[in-house]
Design a protein that fits this description.
GO terms for molecular function: SH3 domain binding. By secondary structure, the chain is α+β, with helices and mostly antiparallel strands. Strands 1-3-2-6-4-5 form a six-stranded mixed β-sheet. Strands 7-8-9-10 form a four-stranded antiparallel β-sheet. α5 runs parallel beside α8, α10 crosses α11 and α28 crosses α30. It has four domains: 101 residues, Roll (Ubiquitin-like (UB roll)), CATH 3.10.20; 213 residues, Leucine-rich Repeat Variant; 220 residues, no CATH class; 151 residues, no CATH class.
């Protein structure tokens, strides 16, 4: 809202005469701020932090000639036009020199006024839109939320929804206010009105453009109910249709797509095993995977940070069904598993028997007329270690029975490739045979480690692979591609059994490099694997070795040169880190649960003397003057990381998620500025930069890697003139002294 010309005029007023205060005390407790009030002239104030807020407001109102000062409170605003945050004794330390304050309606009076206007039956609901907008804006302020909730405001909002009198945009504003109020954690999600829960659940079935905002808010509320309410979580699970939810993936509104994926993740996290399987079957269907791939991943807009995180969580949850098989211990007498092993044998050596079904694998010994020795030989050709009892090869967990499942999937769905692989190895000399079963078991374990199958979702993770949303049984399809690549690598290496670990190491490199391209399907993944053949991997390793001189040995000349160059390299890395901090970074907000689409920005002042921070939108880069918070470097006590962070201590008992990139700046007296970096790279840059500011060692892996790279480069440049020469490990001996030094004197 524009201020009038008169209100933009500035006058200087002292809230308290501080001329008698000693200089040191005044500098510490008195801050110079600007204070505005609607319709009044802005004041420049020397504000004494030792005074109570009530006294400060009373004196400000007195200066303006405003009556009833108890109707007003101070709020801190980040920039002109912003709503501001109410100042309380708890957060008044955020008032710094140069802060911009506003005297506005006190939260208790604002809450009463809003409730009175909403309850006013003489005004139609359509005319109450400004009140609803004001409520939606103010509900994110905790001080206002306490007053509104104390006045039974949450119950009023639920009644508005249940009664049906509120519709359209007003209903969207009511739902937005309700969600913001509940996010403060003051009211339990278990205390909701059951009819309200059912009513909100019914909104997700509406997808018209006019009601998009209602669907968006309803999805967000339902997610919170599922995660935070034991009483109503199952109600939501029964009321919401998965088919309808997945159809929202086609919505043109990014927020609806995001909230739909988030709600599905919440339902999966809280579901019983049977319900989770039902949901996963729907997600793994070709129709839904097509919606995810085409509507979200390859849609009209780029995938944002929060959507990337939710896709990461969904991928982890999709892998949960694999984790059950990984941890399942083998029962050697289980006929189902025995039949799977026999099916592998039949598809390789007895095609006719396999075509007749598993009934032929009964205990009728006359059905298969072969000697025991021949069976053992064939199981050995299949690569089983325990070829007398091949089922025992699957005893180890992980990978457990998942390896057997993947092998059978390959044999049944890619039978021609399976037979080709078995036949090819049958024709090799025994020492060059690629043991299919042993390789398949090791490959399954390798894929589980690379893809982190069985690991909980990361609170900040944004890594996901589109190909796992591209086709049903994507993990098994990836296995089929990899096992054929492994066999090809074995052949190219002319490997023998003793080279098994070396082959698996090469496979790990190949898979990692192929995954780095984020292929859209297992077929494209297979093409990328072919680009990284064994010979290509060897070439890259050799190039890496050639690029490295033996500069980190114990040779004295190298050590001396290295020690001379190191301080300059350290200063270069330090300057880069500080430059990154000055540029600033966007961080996700966290509370008792992850907060969607809420970010804050932090950056270091160009003079390296203070951090400036404040709320920001996704993808924005605010200027320093738009950031309301300030932390002076002189006030910083230390940097802590991981579980030592104050905002991570509450999550120590949580096992369903991990937050590896958390760090906090502790500052006087007992406060902290808490961060959660979205990536490992950003975590390293910020922790190194803060350590450099505090004159501490930069210890991240990124710094060590850059140190080695820069030192190698600098030393190579310094040694260009010695290229091709054999440098001695010790300095040459000094020649003997001459008989006399007459040659040094010109007579």
């Amino acid at each position: 809202m524009r201020r009038s010309r008169a209100s933009r005029e500035i006058i200087k007023v002292d809230v308290e005469d501080t001329s008698h205060v000693p200089f040191g005390t005044k500098h510490k407790d008195v801050v110079k701020v600007a204070v505005e009030m609607q319709g009044q002239t802005t004041q420049l104030v020397d504000l004494d932090q030792k005074e109570s807020l009530e006294v400060i407001v009373e004196k400000l109102c007195e200066g303006w000639g405003v009556e009833n000062p108890h109707y007003y409170s101070l709020s801190l605003i980040s920039h002109e036009g912003a709503r501001g945050v109410y100042i309380t004794e708890k957060n008044r330390h955020q008032i710094k020199n140069g802060s911009y304050l506003r005297v506005s309606t006190a939260p208790s009076k604002a809450a009463r006024d809003i409730i009175t206007k909403i309850k006013n039956r003489n005004r139609p609901m359509a005319e109450k839109k400004p009140v609803m907008q004001r409520l939606a804006q103010m509900s994110s302020d905790e001080t206002f939320a306490v007053e509104f909730i104390t006045s039974d405001g949450v119950t009023l909002l639920m009644d508005l929804v249940v009664s049906g009198v509120t519709t359209g945009e007003n209903l969207g504003l009511v739902l937005a206010a309700f969600l913001a109020l509940m996010d403060h954690g003051i009211v339990s999600w278990n205390s909701l009105n059951p009819r309200f829960v059912q009513r909100v659940a019914s909104f997700v079935n509406k997808s018209t453009v006019a009601e998009a905002i209602i669907v968006q808010r309803a999805l967000a509320i339902l997610e919170s109910i599922v995660l935070l309410s034991d009483a109503f979580g199952q109600v939501v699970s029964g009321q919401v249709s998965l088919q309808v939810l997945t159809e929202h993936f086609k919505s043109p509104a990014a927020e609806i797509q995001l909230n739909s994926v988030t709600l599905i993740n919440a339902l999966l996290i809280k579901a019983t095993p049977a319900k989770a399987k039902e949901i996963l079957d729907i997600i793994n269907s070709r129709h839904v995977q097509g919606l995810i791939l085409q509507g979200i991943i390859d849609g009209r807009r780029t995938v944002g940070a929060e959507m990337a995180h939710q896709l990461h969580v969904l991928q982890v949850l999709l892998f949960c069904c694999l984790d059950d098989r990984i941890q399942t211990e083998l029962d050697p007498g289980d006929p189902e598993q025995l039949n799977k092993v026999r099916k592998l044998y039949a598809l390789a050596f007895d095609r006719d028997l396999s075509a007749q079904g598993s009934a032929l694998f009964a205990e009728n010994k006359g059905a298969i007329r072969r000697s025991k020795v021949e069976y053992m030989e064939n199981y050995k050709k299949l690569g089983f270690t325990n070829y007398t009892s091949p089922i025992l090869d699957f005893e180890e967990t992980p990978p457990g029975l998942l390896a057997l499942d993947c092998m059978l999937f390959f044999a049944e769905n890619h039978t021609e490739s399976y037979n080709k692989l078995v036949f090819e190895n049958s024709c090799r000399d025994d020492q060059y045979v690629c043991p299919f079963a042993r390789c398949a078991i090791a490959l399954t374990l390798l894929l589980c480690k690379i893809l982190q199958v069985g690991e909980p979702p990361s609170e900040t993770g944004q890594d996901y692979h589109p190909m796992f949303f591209a086709t049903p049984n994507a993990f098994e399809e990836v296995f089929c591609v990899c096992i054929q690549s492994l066999n090809k690598t074995w052949r190219e290496m002319r490997a023998i059994h003793e080279d098994f670990d070396k082959v698996m190491d090469v496979c790990r490199e190949q898979i990692g490099m192929a995954l780095s391209h984020r292929p859209r399907s297992p077929a494209i993944f297979g093409t990328k694997l072919q680009d990284y053949s064994y010979h290509e991997i060897i070439r890259q390793i050799q190039d890496s070795r050639v690029s490295k001189l033996p500069l980190d040995g114990d040779v004295e000349p190298f050590c001396g040169l290295r020690n001379t160059i190191t301080p300059g390299v350290v200063q270069l890395i330090k300057a880069h880190r500080l430059s990154h901090l000055v540029k600033g970074g966007l961080f996700q907000k966290f509370n008792k649960r992850r907060v969607k689409d809420k970010f804050w920005f932090c950056r270091l002042a160009p003079n390296f003397k203070a951090f400036h921070y404040g709320d920001a939108g996704e993808g924005t880069t605010p200027d320093i003057d738009q950031l309301s918070g300030k932390l002076d470097l002189a006030d910083i006590k230390q940097l802590v990381t991981g579980k030592q962070c104050p905002h991570m201590k509450e999550s120590r008992s949580q096992k369903d998620s991990v937050t590896p990139y958390a760090f906090s700046i502790l500052y006087y007296p007992d406060n902290s500025l808490d961060f959660v970096a979205p990536t490992k790279e950003m975590y390293d840059l910020w922790t190194d930069g803060i350590s450099a500011l505090l004159d501490q060692e930069m210890t991240s892996k990124t710094t060590k890697k850059e140190m080695e790279m820069l030192l190698s480069m600098e030393m190579r440049l310094a040694l260009l003139d010695t290229e091709g020469l054999q440098l001695p490990s010790e300095p040459p001996p000094l020649p003997p002294e001459p008989d006399n030094y007459d040659f040094a004197v010109k007579l």
